[in-house]
Design a protein that fits this description.
Keywords: Signal. Helices cover 41% and strands 15% of the residues. By secondary structure, the protein is of the alpha/beta class. α5 links the parallel β4 and β5.
Length: 215
């Protein structure tokens, strides 16, 4: 079980306690020691993403299960530790978020229909006082249209990239294979749930993506 209090402290120190130079230094450190080889595949050493590949306006995409939410043995679903506060932090900084998640293609003919079924299924099993923040994701919930599009096939990441213009994209998931595919397509990747790392990519580093593009 991850230490939520420790994660909050780490993210606060990154987002609030560091200046621009400190964030740049931390970005380089995370590239080499925290994000691992998957980030190196998407960015040169000392950078969080390939310079000039995209504009700022970062969009953070997530897997859903075991990344933002957990399904318990009794079938109930709830936020993973730190996930709700992380989404609130992104919302407060006006950073857009999306989901790239596998659901049965039979759940609908369109992403909107499949997303509606996904919301119904999750909400029916939800536990906790705060509901899942579906409103944060808008229409950025991408799901497979066929079995062949299910992750780790690259189609959903490609569709998300096409829908995001030239904005820089982040992908966070618990599965190494998915993170590697996202990195190969130019996303800034982050594997969640790893020991000795923040639970999620620190918000300050995501903000730095915007500043590196506009600076």
């Amino acid at each position: 079980m991850r230490n939520e209090k420790g994660d909050h402290s780490m993210n606060r120190s990154v987002s609030k306690g560091l200046g621009r130079a400190g964030l740049a230094a931390l970005a380089a450190a995370l590239t080499s020691t925290l994000l691992g080889t998957t980030v190196s595949a998407a960015a040169p050493a000392g950078a969080v993403a390939r310079p000039g590949a995209e504009r700022g306006c970062p969009v953070v995409y997530f897997d859903l299960g075991e990344t933002l939410v957990h399904t318990a043995g009794d079938g109930s679903i709830g936020y993973l530790p730190g996930a709700a506060s992380y989404l609130r932090a992104l919302r407060a900084r006006h950073i857009r978020v999306g989901l790239i998640t596998n659901v049965p293609p039979s759940w609908g003919r369109t992403d909107a229909e499949r997303a509606a079924r996904l919301k119904t299924e999750v909400d029916a099993a939800w536990r906790g006082s705060a509901p899942f923040a579906w409103q944060d994701f808008g229409d950025r919930i991408l799901t497979p249209r066929t079995e062949a599009e299910r992750k780790p096939a690259p189609v959903l990441w490609q569709r998300a990239k096409a829908d995001s213009g030239r904005c820089r994209l982040v992908y966070q998931a618990e599965t190494a294979d998915e993170v590697k595919v996202a990195a190969s397509l130019g996303y800034v990747p982050y594997q969640v749930g790893q020991v000795h790392r923040p639970s999620f990519l620190p918000v300050g580093l995501i903000e730095l993506l915007d500043r590196r593009s506009s600076g």
